[in-house]
């Protein structure tokens, strides 16, 4: 049995770090971020977050609206720089022994890819052209698309089941189709670390399951996946590891069986939940009541 | 239901289809076609004009000056007629071409960097700012500083417009254009005031040519300034296709693709201001070229910048040469500022863009 439960955190950062994912391979092989803080206009959005994602696994980043999930993903992706507060130990973001914060942007973009929520364009861009954008970090800024770039893009589209849409304009796609194109664009970057911000948002249930299956396949190929998710049951069925944050702090992290429990979820979401067991997969299934 | 499971082999993509090329069908032919259209446009429009010159005589004059006279065994033209072609018509046509190409490239770059389909040097006030800078140094008699002052005016207008729009909240297209309008009106009023205050001759005509734009007085110096700026800065800007592509899905996406968003945006916008300043110092502020040409070319080639930038330059040049030819011939011997022609064509397109973009404003 995995005993990876991290109790709801009340103590300092060191305790949290020590408790992170015992039993999993050493954290330096996957994503390992520590003491990440980020503030805007004096408001602290992330307050010393420690977050790990084991290599070759799907990790879920959970938390209510406004808890800082999107911001954390942006800091991890290098889009935002973490606060460097005097008197505090500096934040670090490591992946497979590389210091992501110190890596030059273009090299970082060859290691990790970020799938944003609801990225749109008004421009008349074809699906293939959108996916080819993912090749930008891999080639000279003066070069055009090579045959190899097109092969990678075609393979990425095949992987998300969008090969038939290659010549369609992105603006004409449904929300679910567009989300898959964004995923294919990220895959065209050939990332070892894939960060996704609510990749199943606005998707019907079949498309949600399909998306999660692609993420599982990628993890099976050795990609480290960290996805912010709203649907706790989707996370329970598909994630190997989950991190729960609230108000910019990590509340709990570890195996789904240990973290997706009433003690953790009830205070974070302000609900009452009960945990059942999925009859086939043995994974937790959550049912909710409002807290009063 | 489509399944997302990885397939054993990628579905083959037709190698010759429009989708497989990464652009639309016939992408490889657009640039040669654009070059051919521009060359043909110059050769035809240079023969058009009020003076009664035969087509053959016009080309004979041009060929002689290009050193082809001996080769083709041509008789030189009379000095008066020759001067009409070589000193008046050709510099004017070439200046219009350089200004059109440069403005179209500026429009593409601004629309892409600000993700604003309404961005162009004229609507955001850069052109008016450049006009004001140019008029100020002309009045002061420091003609040498003309392009520098125009550049300074363009940069100040850009900073003022984006600063004002930013102070009002997020940089939405409508807010940016409104801020640009305020800056542009203020700079235009100041330009008119300076000319009135200092004018010795026909101030109305002069005001009109700065505010509406005109290449009527173009000389070989104009060709050198506008053409040189378009060749150097326009080529540099036009080589940034991949960088501009990366902005397609916004700043975060660009940043995640390895682009230093802030540095790239300001470097390229300063490049745009520099080019706008050089162009406006020779032509005044001509509207709508930078706005509508990029949209028209996108309809033909799609949104990838590698093709969009050079093609917008070629079509922008062709467009402005024809617009100027209309301006000087339709009501001959009276002559319209070319900006009236571009506005007559561009304003309805602008309205259409506003209509199409109403969701995002």
Compact description:
The complex is a heterodimer of chains A (292) and B (361). Chain A has helices at 13-19, 69-76, 105-111, 127-132, 147-159, 175-188, 205-220, 232-238, 256-259, 262-269, and strands spanning 31-40, 43-53, 58-62, 92-95, 98-99, 112-115, 193-197, 224-228, 241-246, 249-254, 271-277, 284-290.
Largest interface: A-B, 59 and 44 residues
Q: Classify the fold: give the CATH topology of the domain at 107-356 in chain B.
A: ABC transporter involved in vitamin B12 uptake, BtuC
User: So how many helices of chain B?
Assistant: 15
Distance between the termini of chain B: 36 Å
Count up the domains of chain A: 2
**Terminal-residue CA separation of chain A:** 35 Å
Taking pLDDT < 50 over at least 5 consecutive residues as the criterion, the unreliable ranges of chain A are: 1-28
Return residue spans of chain B where pLDDT drops below 50 for at least 5 consecutive residues. Answer: 1-23
Radius of gyration of chain B: 22 Å
In oligomeric terms, what are we looking at?
Answer: heterodimer
What is the CATH architecture term of the domain at 107-356 in chain B? Orthogonal Bundle
Structural class of chain A: alpha/beta
CATH architecture of the largest domain in chain A: 3-Layer(aba) Sandwich
Number of strands of chain B: 0
CATH class of the largest domain in chain A: Alpha Beta
Give the averaged pLDDT of chain A, no decimals. Answer: 86
Tell me what portion of residues of chain B adopts beta-strand conformation. Answer: under 5%
Strand segment tally of chain A: 12
CATH superfamily of the domain at 107-356 in chain B: ABC transporter involved in vitamin B12 uptake, BtuC
């Amino acid at each position: 049995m995995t005993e990876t439960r991290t109790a709801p955190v009340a103590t300092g950062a060191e305790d949290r770090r020590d408790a992170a994912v015992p039993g999993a391979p050493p954290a330096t092989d996957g994503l390992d971020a520590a003491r990440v803080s980020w503030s805007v206009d004096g408001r602290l959005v992330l307050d010393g977050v420690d977050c790990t994602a084991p290599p070759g696994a799907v990790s879920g980043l959970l938390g209510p609206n406004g808890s800082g999930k999107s911001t954390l993903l942006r800091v991890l992706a290098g889009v935002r720089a973490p606060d460097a507060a005097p008197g505090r130990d500096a934040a670090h973001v490591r992946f497979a022994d590389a210091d992501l914060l110190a890596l030059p942007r273009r090299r970082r973009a060859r290691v990790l890819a970020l799938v944003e929520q609801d990225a749109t364009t008004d421009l008349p861009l074809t699906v293939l052209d959108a996916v080819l954008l993912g090749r930008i970090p891999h080639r000279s800024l003066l070069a055009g698309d090579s045959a190899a770039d097109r092969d990678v893009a075609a393979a990425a589209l095949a992987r998300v089941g969008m090969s038939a849409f290659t010549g369609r304009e992105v603006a004409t796609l449904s929300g679910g189709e567009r989300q898959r194109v964004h995923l294919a664009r990220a895959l065209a970057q050939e990332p070892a670390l894939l960060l996704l911000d609510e990749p199943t948002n606005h998707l019907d249930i079949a498309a949600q399951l399909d998306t999660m299956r692609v993420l599982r396949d990628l993890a099976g190929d050795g990609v480290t996946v960290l996805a912010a998710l709203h649907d706790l049951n989707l996370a329970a069925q598909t994630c190997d590891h989950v991190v729960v944050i609230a108000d910019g702090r990590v509340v709990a992290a570890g195996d789904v069986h240990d973290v997706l429990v009433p003690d953790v979820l009830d205070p974070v979401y302000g609900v009452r939940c009960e945990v059942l067991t999925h009859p086939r997969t043995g994974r937790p299934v959550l049912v909710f009541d409002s807290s009063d | 239901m489509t399944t997302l499971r990885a397939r054993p082999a990628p579905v083959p993509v037709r190698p010759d289809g429009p989708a497989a090329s990464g652009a639309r069908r016939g992408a490889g032919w657009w640039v040669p076609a654009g070059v051919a259209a521009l060359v043909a446009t110059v050769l035809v429009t240079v023969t058009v004009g009020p003076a009664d010159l035969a087509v053959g005589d016009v080309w004979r004059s041009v060929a002689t000056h290009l050193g082809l006279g001996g080769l083709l065994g041509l008789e030189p033209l009379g000095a008066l007629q020759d001067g009409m072609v070589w000193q008046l018509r050709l510099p004017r046509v070439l200046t219009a071409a350089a200004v059109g190409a440069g403005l179209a490239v500026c429009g593409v770059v601004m629309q892409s960097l600000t993700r604003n389909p309404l961005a162009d040097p004229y609507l955001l006030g850069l052109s008016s700012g450049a006009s004001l800078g140019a008029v100020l140094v002309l009045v002061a008699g420091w003609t040498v500083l003309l392009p520098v002052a125009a550049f300074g005016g363009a940069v100040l207008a850009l900073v003022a417009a984006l600063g004002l729009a930013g102070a009002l909240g997020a940089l939405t297209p409508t807010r940016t254009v409104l801020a640009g309008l305020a800056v542009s009106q203020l700079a235009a009023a100041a330009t008119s005031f300076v000319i009135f205050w200092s004018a010795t001759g026909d101030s109305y005509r002069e005001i009109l040519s700065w505010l509406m734009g005109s290449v009527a007085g173009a000389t070989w110096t104009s060709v050198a300034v506008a053409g040189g700026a378009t060749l150097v800065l326009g080529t540099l800007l036009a080589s940034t296709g991949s960088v501009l592509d990366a902005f397609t899905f916004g700043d975060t996406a660009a940043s995640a693709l390895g682009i230093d968003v802030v540095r790239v945006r300001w470097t390229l916008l300063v490049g745009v201001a520099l080019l706008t300043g050089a162009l406006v110092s020779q032509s005044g502020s001509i509207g709508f070229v930078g706005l509508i040409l990029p949209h028209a070319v996108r309809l033909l080639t799609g949104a990838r910048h590698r093709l969009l930038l050079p093609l917008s330059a070629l079509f922008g040049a062709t467009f402005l040469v024809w617009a100027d030819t209309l301006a000087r011939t339709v009501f001959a011997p009276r002559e319209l500022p070319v900006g009236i022609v571009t506005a007559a064509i561009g304003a309805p397109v602008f309205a259409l863009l506003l209509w199409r973009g109403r969701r995002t404003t």
